[in-house]
Description:
Its EC number is 2.3.1.37. The protein contains 15 helices and 14 strands. The protein is of the alpha/beta class.
Amino acid sequence: xxxxxxxxxxxxxxxxxxxxxxxxxxxxxxxxxxxxxxxxxxxxxxxxxxxxxxxxxxxxxxxxxxxxxxxxxxxxxxxxxxxxxxxxxxxxxxxxxxxxxxxxxxxxxxxxxxxxxxxxxxxxxxxxxxxxxxxxxxxxxxxxxxxxxxxxxxxxxxxxxxxxxxxxxxxxxxxxxxxxxxxxxxxxxxxxxxxxxxxxxxxxxxxxxxxxxxxxxxxxxxxxxxxxxxxxxxxxxxxxxxxxxxxxxxxxxxxxxxxxxxxxxxxxxxxxxxxxxxxxxxxxxxxxxxxxxxxxxxxxxxxxxxxxxxxxxxxxxxxxxxxxxxxxxxxxxxxxxxxxxxxxxxxxxxxxxxxxxxxxxxxxxxxxxxxxxxxxxxxxxxxxxxxxxxxxxxxxxxxxxxxxxx
Length: 406
Ligand SMILES: *Cc1c(COP(=O)(O)O)cnc(C)c1O
């Protein structure tokens, strides 16, 4: 086989489909985020509009101070797996902070949210005898990979469809172990799961629940515990999974659950056992971020206000954006080439960075720009964004929302 030619052909195919991914080479400016410098192109100054650092916590003074302090106190890396000298006091404190955030007995840290889903679902699915996992059709790749890795039977239910979920549950023997895996805020459409009703079904059919709150922790609920906290449902969820890399602005992932379940995953998950622990400074920074957002609603309120402002201004000029109850604003383009074209032009001509979202992240024909406003975007940033989109919408001859319908 001509290996290099094989790689090249596969990449050429991706390019011709408009799905080849190009990473913007950015340098974020601490204290001035969402502003950044783009390297290797003409427009050097860019405003980032697609970050998952939803609240700007990645530059929060308390987070940075905690990280600096931890580096000065105990150095760069953890030095080992959690089992082999990699458990520091910062890890222990962070797990306590997370358990408290979700009102659970315990929490378990992983190196990322991806790894937490992969390892926890993989372990539960493979170790619980005859377990069947009922997985929402739009679950994140990390959950899908974890479930696949577990080799447990997987039943995919229609996205957010309680009727389909119940039909699948009802067809299984009541005594068979079951796990319902789903998300709260779905990150591409910004819609929210009917958590309460899913918990009711779980009770009725004797199933465990596994909720990915990655796009909600820090952002919703009086203390940033997520949608389940906002709706008073945290105690009804068996496992709450989250990330420290999005609204909390650092990196890492976790599950929060009962003492026994966390201890079980800690004891059996290869993706937990055989990898170096997060740097203590990361744990300290994440704990500072969580602590701050438990006590402050200002960031959450400002976040929602900016989201409303962007939606209003897009509607005023007829740029079509999906209506949803979350902070994610999908601007629908529906064509991978146009999506990439608009994204390129935004960056080159307007200094605005929004990554095109194409297949396989979203289904073909639903290509979009996913806008994530944050408390650190100014009114001027918003006006520049909407003006640029208006301009490019005309250039691409894309349809507008009927103004009368708004
Ligand atoms: C980003 C994401 C993850 C993975 O979290 P990381 O900390 O970035 O690895 C898991 N689930 C969902 C729904 C996500 O969007």
